Amino acid sequence: MATNHEHVHWLNYLDFLPGDPxxxxxxxxxxxxxxxxxxxxxxxxxxxxxxxxxxxxKVIEKGIEVPPGHLVKGVSVAxxxxxxxxxxxxxxxxxLQNPPGTALVLLDDATPLTAKGxxxxxxxxxxxxxxxxxxxxxxxxxxxxxxxxxxxxxxxxGLKLAQx
Length: 164
Hints:
With 164 residues, the chain is an all-beta fold. The chain has a single domain (6-163), classed as Jelly Rolls, CATH 2.60.120. The chain has strands at residues 6-10, 17-18, 23-27, 41-45, 59-64, 70-81, 87-96, 103-109, 119-122, 137-144, 152-163. The strands form two sheets. Strands 1, 3, 4, 6, 9 and 11 form a six-stranded antiparallel beta sheet that branches. A five-stranded antiparallel beta sheet has the order 2-5-10-7-8, with no helix packed on it. The radius of gyration is 16 Å and the shape is globular.
């Protein structure tokens, strides 16, 4: 539960980028075509599984901005699925280090988000609140597709913030 010094900062969820060519994103302002039909970022994959073409994980990712004077304490994701066979497998925040040759994983929640929804879930808290002043932050959602006909729809993504 949020205290007076904690709140959710909603992000522009429409600007997540696919992490490899097998993943595509689209938007239809009238209907997502999934479940309740509420509009959102529609995520598809041309391949099954959680592995990206060329190696690594199948993800969508975005850089995140945190308002000055705040620390990140978690992530909220509102989503809907066409099938529980295709889902979000991980919520992760990484921070670029200085010098920028490495990045640290500061939030790594591998709880499978398999409810067909629509639903909003909160990630587990990071080991310590994340200080955005220590380096640029990226948020990624790892994906697993059981069928190429399935779709995952993002309706909202927010950061749980606390004042310094």
